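To close the section, here is one more complete example, presented without commentary so you can practise reading it yourself. The ligand is N,N-dimethyl-L-histidine.
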Amino acid sequence: MSIELIDLHPAPADLKQLVQSGFKCQPRQLPAWVLYDAKGSRLFAQICEQPEYGLTRTEIKLLEENSPAIAKAVGDGVIVEFGIGNARKVSSLLNAIRPSTFVALDISQAALRDSLTRLANTYPMVSMLGICCDHSSMQALPPHPRLEGVRCIGFFPGSSLGNFTPKEAVAVLRRFRKLLGGGPLLLGLDQPRDPTQLEAAYNDAAGISAAFARNLLHRLNRELEADFRPDHFSYRARWQEEFHRIEMALVSRCSQTIVIDNSTWSFSAGEPLITEYSVKYNPQEAARLAEKAGWRINQRWHDSADSLSLHLLEP
Ligand code: AVI
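Output:
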C-alpha cells in the first residue's frame, strides 16, 4: 500500500489577495474553493447525504451501472480525479479500470489524506498520489516517477464545473486538456430542471447548506483575523433562469462594517456576498462548452430522468 501527498495549497497571502479583489467586485464574491477547509469539506459531505440533494446518489448509481462500458470507452491509464472530496465516486472506476496509479487533486488536505487512506486499504495494489491544490488553476501535474510516460484519464464528477461561470469553465477545461496531455476526460454535469426542486437541493431543511456557506466567514475570521459575525448574515439560494444557475449568497442582515487585516469593508443591509454559483448544463450547452475548450464529446451516459450526465470528452 502506498500513499504520497504533495502540498501545493495556495498560501495565506493568496487568500488575503483573493478577498481584497473579490470584495472590490460588485456584487462581492469569492472563488468556491475557499469554502473547502477541513470543516467545509465535512459539511459538503453531509450536504451530499441530504434527501433534497440527489445529485451525488444519482451520479454514483450512474457510475456503478455503466462502469464496464465507461472503462471500455476510456481505455487504460492513470486516473486523475479533480476534487476527490470524500471519494464516494471513484470506486466504480478503480474496480473497472484497475489502474496502477490513482492521482487525486483536492483543495482540502484533510479530505485528501482521509480519502486516500481509505482507498489505499481497499485497493492495496494501486499507488495513491494526492496533490493538495486549487485544481482548477493547475496547468500540469508535478513531475513524479509514477507519471512519466503514462496515459492520463481525467475524472471531474459532481457537476463541479458548474461552480465556475461558463467563461471560467472553458478556461478550466482548456487547462485540464493541457494537463491530461492527450488523454480523455470523464465529466459529470447536472442539468437544468424544476427550480423549486433545485432551490430545495441548495437550501436543505436541516440547514447544512447554510452552515456550509457560513463556515466561509468562520474561515476568514480564523485565517485572516477578520471580525465577521456569521449570525449577521442570512443564507440565500435562488435559481436564476437567465443564467441557468443557482446563486448562493450570504446576505447582510443589517448595515455593518467588517475589518479584515487593517482593511475596512462596509456591507449595507440586504447586500449579498456571493459564495458560489452552480450552473446547470443541458447536453447541447455541454457540447458547446466542451468545443470552445478544444474537446469533443464522444459519448454520454445519463440517468433514467435524464437529469445528470457523464460526458466522455476527447481532445
Ligand atoms: C461541489 N459542487 C458541485 C456543489 C454543487 O452542487 O454545486 C457545491 C454545493 N454547494 C452547496 N451545495 C452543493
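Once you have examined the C-alpha cells, check your reading against these statements. The mean pLDDT is 96. The pocket of N,N-dimethyl-L-histidine is lined by residues 47, 55, 158-160, 162-163, 202, 209, 212, 276, 278 (CB under 6 Å).
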